[in-house]
């Protein structure tokens, strides 16, 4: 028996529609999306709904359509130990401060952001 535990996508054309295929994936621990220009808030919501309880590490980099609203869904990932967010153009300094305060309250204390 094999399980999907890691997803690493660079410059991939992934959308919320594709994320519905994660339904039933019960061992996904690490995801990394870099340069995924079509990745948007709805996809993050769908991912968290399907895999949030098992995710330990999330890295989002250079995903131009991700906004603070989408990132707030990550607060539901109660097993998260690492969260890396870089080069997200919709995230202003003020947004970052508010988001970090919110996520630090919701995520496990041992999660490194």
TrEMBL record:
Cleaved signal peptide residues: none
Q: Which organism is it from?
A: Pristionchus entomophagus
Q: Which InterPro entries match?
A: Leu-rich_rpt_Cys-con_subtyp (IPR006553), LRR_dom_sf (IPR032675)
Descriptive protein name:
Distal membrane arm assembly complex 2-like protein
